[in-house]
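Morning run. Coffee first, then this:
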Amino acid sequence: MRFTDQFTSSSLRVFALALALLSTQLLACKTSVEEDAVPSKQPEEVAATNTEMATYSSTTVNFIKNASLKGSFSIPIGVAVIKERLEDPVYANVVTREFNSITAESNMKFGNLHPEEKTWTFSKADAVVAFAQKYNMRVHGHALIWAKDSVQPAWVKNFKGDRAAWDLMLKTHVQTVVKHFKGKVASWDVINEPVASDGTLVDNIWLRKLGIDYIFKAFKYAQEADPDAKLFLNDYGQEFGGKKMALLLDIAAQAKARKIAFHGLAFQGHTVLRIDPMKFYTNFKRAADAGLLVYVSELDISVRYQQPSLFTLTTDLASSQGSKWKAIIKAYLTAVPKAQQWGITTWGVADCDSFFNHNIADNNHDYPLLFDSKYNPKPAYKGFVEAGLGK
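And here it is:
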């Protein structure tokens, strides 16, 4: 396949027409927030077609003609989304054109679904699932329990009760959520980030009230609610191995010994340019050798090391980032047998979606994703596709 950035005059006219139809406001990616943002009011615009988007993208990078992320792999390729952004037709077009799996970045988290003990708010999460169903996309649920005190809703922090009451509360939450989405959500992050970098359990309210059993109970309750769903423990930093990876594998082994469904480890993969991809390879293989499904659940690559607070993505940085994306994905495809590859998901669509840029007024703070803030594919995109195509 030949890569080119040369275009005919007719192609350029198509691009100019598409650009004229789309306002700057529509093309600009909205600031990402961990909590659901209220979308700004926008005038009605005409969404770019796939052809127009391909031409637009091709003006700035060696775009791979007639390729897409999902079309370059035989495994699901996913992206984290927020309900309000899916209402932006340009954003939604990129999601449906490039990906065949989605994760709700925040709409399925505990506090958003269950803000009060007797209150459940499923509308936004339901909208994400409906979008996925419309476009025949897999849904990965994130996350049933997050092992972090600061993210718990106030009613959980203030909950009074003995161990049995906490157990019942955990069961009620997990099973209400999983049953609500049964048959619609293919897999879940049952527990999110329970192990610290030093290989100890993260101190959090669930651990203090139920001990390590909170992990096994959550998996058991999710299994009971939807026996067909694949259940994962999602964490960061497994690529560094050490005591953290050892404890994660031990938790998986304990679950197996208790005959509790524990299908896989999800490697978040929030990483940096200077990471050695062999670290990923080694620990992907350790998880696969343990008989687990392996899922790359939140991949992005920060480039801001030793940069000023605001900086421009240079050609060299972008090229290095593209090479790193390619190397990490190749490590996954090589280390993990095909039957154990649950897929690869990026944590956001464009750079300004990224949590690296949360609460940053200027989007030129970091550039960790596959698309820039105007939804142009970057060299990172090219590296990703080439890995899938075996180049």
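The radius of gyration is 21 Å. Good start to the day.
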